[in-house]
Amino acid sequence: MIETDVLIIGSGIGGLSTAIKIAEARPDLSITVLTKTIEGESNTRYAQGGVAAVWDAEVDSYTKHKEDTLDAGDGLCDEKIVDIVVSEGPDRVRDIIDWGARFDKKKDTIEYDLAREGGHSEKRILHYKDLTGWEMQRAVMAKTDELPNITIYEHYFAIDLITQHHLGHSVTRLRQDIQCYGTYALNKKNNVIETILARVTVVATGGAGQVYRATTNPVIASGDGISMAYRAKGWTENMEFVQFHPTSLYHPGGDNPVFLVSEAVRGFGGILKSKEGEEFMHKYDPRKSLAPRDIVARAIDNEMKVRGEDCMYLDCRHLNHEDFVAHFPTIYDKCKSIGIDPMKDMIPVAPACHYMCGGIKVDDLGQTTIQRMYAVGECTSTGLHGANRLASNSLLEAMVFAHRIAADILPKVDAWTIQKGIPDWNAGGTTDPKEMVLITQSIKELKEIMSSYVGIVRSNVRLKRALDRLELLYHETEEIYNTTTISPQLCELRNLITIAYLITRSARLRKESRGLHFTTDYPERTPFVQTNVI
Ligand code: FAD
Ligand code: SIN
Fold first, then answer.
1. Could you tell me the pTM of the whole model?
2. What is the number of the ligand 1 atom nearest to the C-alpha of 185?
3. DSSP string across 38-62
4. Would the CB of 149 count as within 6 Å of ligand 2?
5. DSSP code of 377?
6. Which one of the ligands is nearest to 380 CA?
7. Which of ligand 2's atoms lies nearest the C-alpha of 117?
8. pLDDT digit string (tens) for 316-346?
9. Which residue among the candidates 45, 92, 293, 514 is catalytic per the annotation?
10. What single string gives the DSSP state of each residue in 216-284?
């Protein structure tokens, strides 16, 4: 058993920023960070485009950033949260710069080289080549290393949050006094399930892209935190708003994850075209290739279907070779490695699942509907993104909320105590799994169901079919879960089924098309605004 003052589950930008903020303010507190593989593996690490923040006050303003965020969010953003993130964002970017993160500057100047992405009316994206996430992850890890009161436990897989339920009390979603006491976590090095108790728990487990066949998210992104919170009877919301990035590199062969071709490439002048070299985005939006993501992804999906093609193309051949390579070295190298020279060939692209706009419902301080439990980053629904996230607002949101969570926890933490009497994990009556293939096959099936029926374009019939198939998978998986020993693969399957259920159920409840949710049965937006809380 581990006892700690603050437990943080997840070591991406959300988790580590929260840890740093608390650790710096209170060196006497013990902060324990669990991460299910290595500390550096996260969605954060793969972020390419950058972090959006109002930086050049001469041309940009909070009002403009706010309007762009609201416009992308298609009527569902919480304006108060947008104000908070946009206005506090620049200070949080300054924090990570102070912790050592580097962002590209204009040649021979000290001015940051701000980029533009879809849906942004100004250049406001700070970036480090096309490796911004890698650099930010490096910086927060280095800062964490300097703080002796933070302990990182790698290869610890959080299985379930501990609440009154584990003390034998009935816990329902309507109860307002559910408390989180910590988590049960599988120590993957010795296969022992350990009880980790804390005064306060912060869930920072990232996204859930692995619920679809083609995703830019690494394999860690299986929605564990959202599923754990749902099982613990916390509230989730807006799960129907799954963001598909318009331009993942199309490379048949089933790479998991698929490689992203950053939106910043379009911001830099790359133009979407058909195989024949025709532009098509003007048919969908006056902003053409730089329209918000939901519009571009749907346009590409539609063109692929109408033309019977597997991909569309990004034309960069007119761009300056040297500048392109300097800005996008990773994208350039990746294309070259599969025989595509972006300076001579158009880059084949197709949409792929990229970001979860919904998640664990939190308030403006990151507090979930469960007491002593906060959540930060992609696993949350803060109200910032509404029905569609504006590009590069995610890293920003995680940093802003990490700061706010720390500020809320610090004056309260001493009053919370470690809960006594929590039983050890009960593994009685289970045996080792004999047929791992059942789990891997079910994961494949799940991805097929979600990609075929709950993708960019939905309909009542498709959603019903998905729910019917999911129910079967759910029952089969619960039977395995109740009779075999726990493995990370089994837990991930179980969590992904929960995520698939939440997405599909929320999609069924939304009888309109809005932002990232498009259904052929209700192609218009309704005049009223409804948030799907489950
Ligand atoms: P993550 O960084 O994903 O961290 C989650 C952590 O939780 C990981 O350490 C993981 O191991 C751990 N974890 C998960 N489950 C468990 C468990 N059960 N037990 C223990 N640990 C667990 N956003 C932008 O703003 N700008 C961009 O340019 C940008 N580009 C992107 C490019 C790509 C390819 C991808 C995939 C995403 C991009 N995003 C971008 C989105 C952004 O990177 C993420 O939303 C953000 O990094 C999420 O941070 P996080 O801390 O919430 O989660
Ligand atoms: C990208 O670089 O296109 C990703 C940006 C984001 O997801 O915010």
1. 0.97
2. 19
3. -TT-SSGGG--S-EE----TTT--H
4. no
5. G
6. 1
7. 3
8. 999 999 999 999 999 999 999 999 999 999 9
9. 293
10. SS-TT-S-HHHHHHHHTT--EE-TT-EEEEEEEEP-TTT-SSPPB--HHHHHTT-EEE-TTS-B-GGGT
